[in-house]
Amino acid sequence: MSIYRTLKGYNIKSVTSDPANTKEGQIWYNDTSNKIRVNTIKPATWASGGNYPATAHGIQGDGTQTAAFAAGGSADTDETNEYNGSSWTAGNNMGTARYTFGANGSQTAGLAFGGYNPGTAGNIVNVEEYDGTNWAEQNNLPAATQQNTGCGTQTAALKFGGSPDAGTDEYDGTSWTAGGDMNTARYAMAGAGTQTAALAAGGHLGDNTASNSTNSEEYNGSAWTEGNDINTSRKDFSGSGIQTLALVFGGDGITATEQYNGTSYTATAALSTGRRLGAGAGTGQLALYSAGQPTNSTEEFTDITNAVTSLDVS
Asked: Can you tell me the distance from the alpha carbon of 31 to that of 39, in angstroms, rounded to the nearest whole number?
């Protein structure tokens, strides 16, 4: 018979409350609840959330897992929807219908820029800010583009990539200023981070090639630097989090999800439904992915977590 102290290096202690910062597999007896307790690990998962109101693709949004916004989409829509952690509620419409555009910010301070408008059959320069109730027109992008990527906040945003404009532009809440060019021009990337610490992953290499990219680059507020590649090349996917703890997911109808630690990408829990051109939001540990071709489902990502549970010793 194995002895717990021999296996783990410490005895089962009797305590009046659950201790902080326990180790995986650590066991103790809680005198107050009269229960044997253990620290276990829950694996990363994607779980079902409330369905998006429409089966749309090309929608974009941002925010957190429990307070997100998503807008636009295929079929020339200007609709906006807000997520509260369990269901979606309609908000006020955008001023300009669009899809495959850049978006970032929060549910009460969002930003949307560029994209494609089917009604005019063209790329657009329009920029709008969302205050949680209404959208308001702002100064345009320097050039019309679609399938561009964004990150940051409403008053410190970054736009990068796009078709045909693959440049970088910085937004200060009023106007746009050119930033450093990416090392590999591409569009339909996943993005994460802030204006001064951004991450760009994957994407499509251009209109004259059928190739998707595995390239990953980091932005420091002035220049892009090549980093380690993502494991699965793809386009039309989403990202969330910060430059040192990010998540990239979906794209091209696949379920693959990868987590970035600031150096390299590691495969983690796969989506239940493969999709492309959905709306992402959240962090590198708590993310949200909604709609996209061919579904209206919403999925919520939860990273690996410690969980303290009681043992049944009856």
From this structure: 17
Residues with Cβ within 8 Å of 310's Cβ and at least 6 positions away in sequence, in order, are 33, 35, 36, 37, 38
CA-nearest of 2, 32, 8 to 22 is: 8
Q: Which pLDDT does position 309 carry in this prediction?
A: 76
Q: What is the 8-class DSSP label of residue 90?
A: E
Cα–Cα distance list, 38 to 7, 12, 16, 70 (Å): 15, 10, 15, 40
Look up the pTM and report it.
0.88
Nearest to 258 by CA among 229, 282, 279: 229
Span(s) in the chain for CATH 2.120.10.80: 45-302
What number is the average pLDDT over the span 153-181? 96
- Residue 156 confidence (pLDDT): 98
Just give the CATH number of 45-302.
Answer: 2.120.10.80
Reduced to 3 states, what is the DSSP secondary structure of residue 303? coil
- pLDDT single digits (tens) 215-266: 999 999 999 999 999 999 999 999 999 999 999 999 999 999 999 999 999 9
- Residue 216 tokens, joined: 């990953």
Q: Lay out the sheet containing 13-15: strands in order across.
A: 13-15, 27-30, 35-42, 305-310
Phi-psi region of 214 (alpha: psi -120 to 50; beta: other; left: phi over 0): alpha
Per the DSSP assignment, residues forming a β-bridge with 147 are none
**Between these two residues, 160 and 34, which has the higher pLDDT value?**
160
**DSSP bridge pairs for 142:** none
Cα 233 to the chain's mean position, in Å?
17
Enter the DSSP assignment of 293. Answer: B
Backbone dihedral angles phi then psi of residue 4, each to the nearest 5 degrees: -60, -40
In the sheet with 157-160, reading across from the earlier edge strand, the strands are: 149-152, 157-160, 168-171, 176-178
pLDDT band at 22 (very low <50, low <70, confident <90, very high): confident
Cis peptide before 142 (omega within 30 of 0): no
Distance CA 264, CA 287 (A): 19
